[in-house]
Amino acid sequence: DPKFKLRNVDVSYGADRAIKNISLDIGRNEVISFIGPSGCGKSTFLRCLNRMNDSIDICRIKGQLMLDDEDIYHSKRDVVELRARVGMVFQKPNPFPKSIYDNVAYGPRIHGLANRKSDLDDIVENSLRKAGLWNEAKDRLDSIATGMSGGQQQRLCIARAIAVSPEVILMDEPCSALDPIATARVEELIAEMSESYTIVIVTHSMQQAARVSHRTAYFHLGHLVEVNETNKVFTSP
Ligand code: ADP
Ligand code: ADP
C-alpha cells in the first residue's frame, strides 16, 4: 500500500494551472525527489501534500490526494492533525525566536503528547538525537534557537518536525541556504530518517537527488514528465 496515492491532481492559481493532471504513488519509507526548473510547480506540488496551500485564496485543487486511505482534501480530520502527520521543513531555516527546547517542545505541547515534564524532556531529547543535534544542543537547551548556525537551525527544524511523530516529512529545498558541510550533514540525516519516514524532497540539484533519493521525479511546466528509480535516471545514456 502506498503512503500517498495521487490521481489526476490539478492545481491552479486563478486562471493559471501550476500542476497539470498528476497521478503518482509514493511508497512508505521512500525518499523521492522532485526536480525541475524554477516555476515548474515543485513547491506547489509539495504544499498540496499537507494543505499548505489552503491559505492562498486563489489556489484551487482538483483530483484525488489520498494519504493512506483518506482523501486529504475531503477528510473530516482537521488540518492541524494532517500537518502533524505530514511535517514540513523549508528552504530557509525558520526556528521560532524561542529557546532550543521550546522549539522542539512546541508541537508536542500543542498536540498534548506529553502529560509530564519528564515525558516532554524525553521527546525533546529523542528528537534532537534523531536530528543529530543532541551533543551540540544538550548544554544550551535554554539558549535562543536563532543564535545557532544555519545548519544547526535547519537540523533543529527537522527535530521540531520529528517531535510530533510524523509519518511523512516534506522538504522544500532543505539545503539551498546551507554551506557544503551543513548540506552534507542534512543529507546524512535524510538517509538515516528514510528508515522511519516517507520523505518528499524538492531540490534544484540533480546531484542531491542522486545522493539522497530512491526515486526522482521531473516536473516541466506543471507536468510530471518522468518518474524513475534514481540509479536508473542517472546512469541511463
Ligand atoms: P517551483 O517550486 O518549481 O519554483 P512554484 O510551485 O513555486 O514552482 O510555482 C509554479 C507556478 O505557480 C509559477 O507559475 C508560479 O508563479 C505560480 N505560483 C506559485 N505560487 C503562487 C501564488 N501564491 N499565487 C499565484 N501564483 C503562484
Ligand atoms: P521558490 O521558487 O524558492 O519556491 P518563489 O520565489 O517561487 O520561491 O516563491 C516564493 C513565494 O512566493 C511562495 O510562497 C510562492 O507561493 C509565492 N509566489 C510564487 N509565484 C507567485 C506569483 N506568481 N504570485 C504570487 N505569489 C507567488
Automatic annotation (TrEMBL):
GO CC annotation, single: membrane
ABC transporter domain sequence ranges: 4-237
Record key words, sorted: ATP-binding, Nucleotide-binding, Phosphate transport, Transport
GO biological process: phosphate ion transmembrane transport
Nucleotide-binding found in the keyword field: yes
GO MF annotation list: ATP binding; ATP hydrolysis activity; phosphate transmembrane transporter activity
Record's protein name: Phosphate ABC transporter ATP-binding protein
Species for this entry: Marinobacter panjinensis
Phylogenetic placement of the source organism: Bacteria, Pseudomonadati, Pseudomonadota, Gammaproteobacteria, Pseudomonadales
